[in-house]
From TrEMBL, chain A:
InterPro entries: ABC3_permease_C, Lipoprotein-release_system
Main location, first listed in the record: membrane
Organism: Marinicella sediminis
Keyword Membrane: yes
Protein name from the UniProt record: ABC transporter permease
Span of domain ABC3 transporter permease C-terminal: 269-389, 662-779
Source species, domain of life: Bacteria
Keywords linked to the UniProt accession: Cell membrane, Membrane, Transmembrane, Transmembrane helix
Transmembrane segments: 20-40, 269-291, 312-339, 359-381, 434-453, 656-676, 711-733, 753-772
Family according to the record: Belongs to the ABC-4 integral membrane protein family. LolC/E subfamily.
Membrane topology, from the record: Multi-pass membrane protein
Pfam families: FtsX (PF02687)
Automatic annotation (TrEMBL), chain B:
Protein family (similarity comment): Belongs to the ABC transporter superfamily.
Protein name: ABC transporter ATP-binding protein
Domain of life from the UniProt record: Bacteria
Keyword Membrane: no
SUPFAM superfamilies: P-loop containing nucleoside triphosphate hydrolases
ABC transporter domain span: 13-240
Keywords annotated in UniProt: ATP-binding, Nucleotide-binding, Transport
Database matches in Pfam families: ABC_tran (PF00005)
InterPro entries linked to this entry: AAA+_ATPase, ABC_transporter-like_ATP-bd, ABC_transporter-like_CS, MacB-like_ATP-bd, P-loop_NTPase
Gene Ontology molecular function: ATP binding
Length: 788, 242
């Protein structure tokens, strides 16, 4: 090893504290990038592997009832590969010891073997017996939520008749990674079950012998999917088919893909911010560090080392620090990525997990960091390297302080000398001071952004669960019923009010733009569920005629008040309607379109129908009501608002807490890195000054105050800036996360700001503690004797 | 002009059997080898010695910047040689004024503020302006160090050292970085303080000429006191030449 290299490592060892602090800042950037990219990769590969191994279908369609022999025609559609017909139905499940109603989605499977498509992952137990008609396979999340085991018995209401079934197996399915019951916003494993039963048993229970009501198929590799969907729709329409959808619109897959897409947004935004901050900090820190090496650089040049050799020597130092940061960051990123993926795998219950991060995330992150740090160091190195050796070896001229605007004012008179030193120091190096503050501001901004997720989700929950919806229960009927059936619901025990709602599946179109969704038709005197403007936080009356669109839907269709929207209804007679937009409202969740129930029923010409009812209930009679609902054949689903809120809190908020913790740790690392380095460099720059103070009789505390006072002022400024930076980051995140599923409300609570400040201050205090130990160990005599 | 002063016999500070060994790696460096030394009230002592003779080490120990390996330093009946850091800080703060070769002013504070830096933390301090007046720098009091010459900076350092009205003024090569003319101005300032305020003063130098302005000259060599000269007549600093 060359002497110069040996010097390099010794220098690095001497300033190891700073090296680690810089490496931590770099590491935080790399870690976010590696974590996000590797999570995305893992989620994509895992879901792809899962789908392939268990033969997840490409196309899904539903009909009312179609004869089995129709499959021959479907098979003739060019590009169709494998077809699986089946019977699916929502049903009420009765689990002993659980009073609330549970909705189950029942799908038929062959009695003697796995289906061709959407095969099950058997976790426990064995396949159905070919002759038995009282066996059922249930999904694992539901089994776990209720502690159900093989051979336990649950009751199902099939076509109005309650019947006991024995659990034969517990399984997972690629079709129900994200299992969402009807009307549910989030998975609720206690109240929603996915179940499989022999085809014959189901056919006889639902009167669908030699017929099917659900069809899935795969297409050949090269085949284009749209013509297949179109031909399928034509074939299925006479049998009450709601138009076929491809895999990307399948609900479970859509959620999984949406989650991956969110990770992607996160992978572009968060690491960019972290990396930008870390590059910026590395730049700041290294340029100051190299400036303190001025004398040595002069000496090396005096010995005859070329500018290039000297520059390379210092750039190597930067590279070593970067490599350390990259290694640390990669390891941390891998750990967090693995953890994050595992968390998703648990949430989605992937039966397999592919976590094999590719090299590109490391290379990308490494390249950005090294380039950024080198660019930063280059400026400082070239400045020092260009000085003639004699000049470089003599200490820089004493900083030329001058009387500024405030130096003689009453403000200054009121300050003691140590405080004046701090102020002047800032005034003398305004840019450097500003950069330090900015560094703190960014680390605080990152924390604000992270903590704010909780605020916006809290608001989202508040608005959605309490303000917009005042019902306690939402009841779904197996099929649309005449409005008079509402009275039956009104007379159930504890029901104080029942309001009808109808969701009409439709394609909403304007020119070439379209959106597949549904129209929420509500009675004009609805009180429990209103058309709610989430931003204005007030209800909008149900219009007599026309549509009220969620703003995002209006934006998607590019329509505004007064424009006509074409509604291609996907059920019943499948009419095509032209309806004017009468208003738009801001909504955080979903892309709703609202209309008047009476008006819609008139347009659909299929009678005064409703399919859902919102109920206001007396909680004291809840048990009776649940019992009655379980035994009401026309009711196919019950959504309990409190349960939905609990699910929201559990799933989203818990999941989020993990992220919040991760990012707070990373942002805390940045805050620590900035304070430690700013203070540590200030200490080496001003060691002599501080030692003088000690000799003059200043105590450790008083001396530290001179050093830390300055940084503290900058931190305080940074905290103010941090609130602004935080707001900016929150804004950009909200913009990036604005998806069809939800819009993040832009709110930052005082508590978030306060906590962010406290976390930054804690990180600063930690570095202060370390630095003030160094002030304590200042060698008074040595510092005073040597002329720096 | 020559000054004759009655030698005081009141001891301000006394050192006994001072030994200081620096352990640097494998070898031990004996900076002091059993030095006995007294500093009398109001006197001016010059410590003369070549580089490495131990004079700075002695001054550092007397001023509470360093502790001896063996021996005692007694100040006002207290042994400060084994005092803890807090007590040493207190000692420096209340009783000792330091002047260094390289001034060590705080660059971000004006002349007046550099002095006030010390007066703010000591009771019974002089008014900073008065201290600057004593070194003849009243007119420059609002200048920053970078705007002052080396001699001016050193005089501010002296003003800063004496503004707290210390019992002892310790000067380590105060003229080391200055030319003769400026050096003499600085020595005049020190002489002035010693005579006007009666501050006990010890000056380290390797310049034998400076010894002529002292009451006593203590020669140090190889960590030991090689000899003590008592000047019957002190030469005013203005008449020194080198």
């Amino acid at each position: 090893m060359k002497v110069l290299d040996r010097k390099l490592f010794r220098v690095l060892w001497t300033i190891k504290g700073q090296v680690i602090a810089i490496a931590m800042v770099i590491a935080s950037g790399i870690a976010t990038l590696v974590m996000s990219l590797s999570t995305i990769e893992a989620l994509e590969e895992t879901s792809a592997a899962y789908y392939e191994r268990y033969r997840f279908a490409d196309v899904f369609a539903q009909v009312k009832r179609a004869p089995e022999k129709l499959t021959a025609q479907i098979r003739d559609i060019p590009g169709v590969q494998t077809i699986q017909t089946r019977i699916t139905r929502y049903t009420t499940v009765d689990v002993t010891g659980f009073s609330e109603p549970v909705i189950g989605l029942l799908s038929s499977v062959p009695e003697d073997r796995q289906p061709n498509l959407n095969q099950l992952v058997l976790r426990k137990g064995s396949w159905l017996s070919s002759q038995a008609t009282d066996e059922v396979i249930i999904n694992e999340p539901f089994a776990e939520a209720h502690g159900l085991a093989i051979d336990d018995v649950i009751s199902l209401i099939l076509n109005g008749r309650k019947k006991p079934f024995r659990i034969k197996a517990i399984a997972l399915s690629p079709e129900h990674i994200y299992s969402l019951g009807p009307g549910m916003l989030l998975p609720d494993d206690q109240r929603f079950a996915v179940m499989w039963m022999g085809r014959k048993a189901m056919a006889s229970a639902f009167d669908l012998e030699s017929a099917f009501n659900d069809l899935t198929l795969t297409v050949e590799h090269q085949a284009s999917i749209n013509p297949i969907l179109d031909q399928l729709d034509v074939l299925l329409a006479p049998f009450g088919g709601i138009s076929a959808i491809e895999r990307k619109d399948q609900i479970s897959n859509w959620f999984v893909m949406n989650e991956i897409a969110q990770q992607k947004t996160m992978a572009t935004i968060l690491p960019s911010i972290f990396l930008a901050v870390s590059v910026f900090l590395t730049h700041m820190i290294l340029s100051r560090l190299i400036a303190t090496e001025r004398t040595e650089i002069g000496l090396l040049k005096a010995f005859g080392y070329s500018q290039l050799q000297v520059s390379w020597h210092y750039l190597k130092m930067v590279v070593v620090i970067c490599l350390l940061g990259i290694t640390l960051g990669s390891l941390l990123g891998l750990m967090l990525g693995r953890y994050n993926t595992q968390m998703y795998a648990d949430l989605f219950r992937f039966p397999l997990l592919v976590y094999q991060p590719g090299m590109q995330s490391f290379l990308l992150g490494g390249l950005i960091s090294v380039a950024g740090a080198l660019a930063g160091a280059m400026g400082a190195v070239s400045k020092v390297v260009q000085l003639p050796p004699a000049v470089a070896m003599s200490p820089p001229a004493p900083p030329n302080y001058q009387h500024g605007l405030f130096s003689k004012s009453w403000v200054t008179q009121w300050l003691d000398q140590p405080t004046r030193i701090a102020f002047r120091q800032i005034g003398r190096w305004p840019l450097r001071s500003f950069l330090t503050s900015t560094g703190m501001a960014f680390s605080m901004g990152l924390i604000v952004m992270t903590l704010q997720w909780n605020d916006s989700l809290g608001l989202l929950a508040q608005v959605n669960f309490f303000e917009a919806q005042k019902q306690d229960l939402m009841v779904g009927l197996a099929e649309p019923k005449k409005l008079r059936a509402l009275h039956d619901l009104e007379h159930l025990p504890g029901v104080m009010r029942a309001e009808p709602v109808r969701y009409i599946s439709a394609d909403l179109r304007s020119e070439h733009r379209s959106h597949r969704g549904s129209i929420t038709a509500m009675a004009a005197d609805n009180q429990l569920q209103s058309i709610y403007d989430d931003a204005a936080r007030q209800s909008v009356p149900v219009p007599d005629e026309g549509l009220i669109l969620a703003e995002r839907l209006a934006e998607k269709l590019q329509v505004s008040k007064g424009d006509l929207v074409r509604i291609d209804v996907l059920e019943g007679r499948r009419p095509s309607l032209l309806i004017p937009v009468v208003d738009t409202v801001e909504t955080y969740l979903g892309m709703a379109a609202y209309a008047n129930l009476t008006a819609m029923n008139r347009l659909l010409m299929d009678g005064e129908l409703f399919q859902f009812a919102n109920l206001k209930t007396d909680s004291l009679q809840a048990a009776d009501l649940f019992y009655a609902l379980k035994n009401t054949p026309m009711v196919s689903s019950v959504m309990v608002k409190q349960a939905a809120l609990d699910a929201f809190n559990e799933t989203l908020v818990e999941h989020l807490m993990v992220f919040i913790t991760m990012f707070i740790v990373l942002a805390g690392m940045v805050a620590f890195g900035v304070t430690y380095n700013s203070t540590r460099i200030a200490l080496s720059e001003r060691g002599r000054e501080l030692a003088t103070l000690r000799v003059l009789g200043f105590t450790h505390g008083e001396t530290s105050y001179v050093l830390l006072g300055e940084v503290t002022l900058l931190i305080l400024l940074g905290l103010l800036l941090g609130s602004l930076v935080g707001w900016g980051l929150v804004w950009s995140m909200a913009a990036a996360f604005d998806t069809e599923l939800f819009r993040v409300p832009l709110v930052i609570s005082e508590a978030t700001i306060a906590w962010s400040m406290i976390i930054v201050l804690l990180a600063a205090m930690l570095s202060f503690t370390l630095i003030s130990g160094r002030v304590r160990r200042l060698d008074l005599i040595k510092v005073l004797k040597t002329r720096e | 002009m020559t000054t004759v002063k009655k030698q005081s016999t009141k001891t301000v500070l006394s050192a006994r059997k001072l030994t200081k060994v620096y352990h640097t790696g494998a070898i031990d460096v004996w900076a002091l080898r059993g030095v006995d030394f007294d500093l009398y009230a109001n006197e001016m002592v010059v410590l003369l010695g070549a580089s490495g003779s131990g004079k700075s080490t002695l001054l550092n120990i007397l001023g509470g910047l360093d502790v001896p390996t063996e021996g005692k330093v007694i100040y006002a009946d207290h042994d400060i040689s084994h005092a803890n850091d807090k007590a040493l800080t207190r000692f420096r703060r209340d009783h000792v004024g330091f002047v260094f070769q390289f001034y060590n002013l705080i660059p971000s504070l004006t002349a007046l503020e550099n002095v006030a830096l010390v007066t703010e933390i000591t009771p019974d301090a002089l008014d900073p302006a008065k201290a600057l007046d004593l070194v003849g720098l009243t007119e420059r009091m609002n200048h920053f160090p970078a705007q002052l010459s080396g001699g001016e900076q050193q005089r501010i350092a002296i003003a800063r050292a004496i503004a707290k009205q210390p019992d002892i003024l310790l000067c380590d090569e105060p003229t080391g970085a200055l030319d003769m003319q400026t050096g003499i101005m600085v020595l005049q300032a020190i002489e002035n303080i010693n005579q006007e305020l009666g501050t006990t003063t010890a000056v380290i130098t390797h310049n034998a000429v400076v010894g002529q302005m002292a009451d006593r000259i203590i020669y140090l060599s190889d960590g030991q006191i090689a000899g003590i000269d008592v000047n019957q007549q002190r030469l005013p600093a203005s008449q020194l030449e080198w």
